[in-house]
Amino acid sequence: MSFFLRSLKESGHLDHLHFTICSVGSRKLEERDDYGSQHWNLLAPNLTIYGFDADADACDAANAELEERAICWTEQHIPLVITKQVGELTLYVTQNPACSSLYSPNEAFLARFVGLPEMVNLDFTTELEATTLDTFCQQEGIEEIDFLQLDVQGAELQVLEGASQIVKNSVLAIQTEVSFSELYINQPLFSEVDTYLRSFGFALFDFDLDAARRVRRISPIQAKRRPGQLLWADAFYLCDPIKDIENVRLQSPENLLKLACIADILGFADYALELLEHLTLKYGDNPRYNVANCIMSCLTQVPEVVQQGLDSLPIFANLKDFITWND
Predict the structure, then answer these.
(1) Among 146, 209, 225, 230, which residue carries the largest CB count within 10 Å?
(2) Residue 98 C-beta-side C-alpha neighbours within 13 Å
(3) If you write DSSP's letter for every residue of 83-112 in order, what string do you get?
(4) What span, in angstroms and rounded, lies between the C-alpha atoms of 256 and 252?
(5) CA end-to-end span of the chain, whole Å?
(6) pLDDT per residue over 209-264, tens digit each?
(7) Cα 268-273-278 angle, rounded to 5 deg
(8) Which whole-number Å values give the CA distances from 316 to 187, 225, 280, 320, in the listed order?
(9) 81 Cβ partners below 8 Å, 6+ apart?
(10) Could you give the dihedral angle defined by the CA atoms of residues 244, 246, 249 and 250, in that order, rounded to the nearest 10 degrees?
């Protein structure tokens, strides 16, 4: 998926950076849940991944599988409930354990849709010790998390509220599941999560709508254009240092380059390009942050761009004083 990352890696521009990913609700159900199997692994060995899940068995399985693979980055999965408070909480364990939540399933609503009761209806409850992400980071001496991913079945806002310090001080991008209807009783919906993240300066970039629609159980038909009600999605939020010019943290060259890499991995190549240009124009006198050659080299891989003519691009005019093709 990434467009610029490999070039940045091979040119040595990432050698001095270390990336930290935190995944809350880290059970690995499919390949996209395994960050080491995606383009994130291009950041290795300067990559640390913390995963949290309430299911101790899932964490044990993930850690055992990582040991067997002999990975070249640091990754550990920790059996902890991460929320907005420290103490004992009730976990509502569902028919499919991956759908378990700190909120009780809304079974009357779920019953109206195909495939949901079999997954999300309540199996049993259990009491577990919980903590906050801020508390965990303080205890473990973790000062930075660059990318935060949340999938905790309706409790995402609780996690964010318990992570306000680490989000404010270091997080550059967030991928979070959001709900548009109450699959769980009294769970916060998208509007509340969106308002909270915008208060920290994050901008909504996109939704991933895979498998997020469900058709009514009574219906023998399913429309092609609108195949059921949109119930949830993954939402992608990124900082915007070009807009938020007074934010000193976001203006550092390290964070500009990190955010560009994260945007690239997430598939926002146009935003990655804008950030890389901004980085070069602002800090390009330092070879560590002059990425003009990488930008132009990657653009030459796009036939339509080459046909248009690289030297006709506005970005070429902006960066021409930083381009050293012979390097």
Answers:
(1) 146
(2) 10
(3) ESSSEEEEEEEESSGGG-BSS-B-HHHHTT
(4) 6
(5) 26
(6) 877 899 999 999 988 888 899 999 999 999 999 999 999 999 999 999 999 999 99
(7) 130
(8) 49, 41, 12, 6
(9) 52, 54, 89, 91, 102, 128, 129, 130, 131
(10) 30
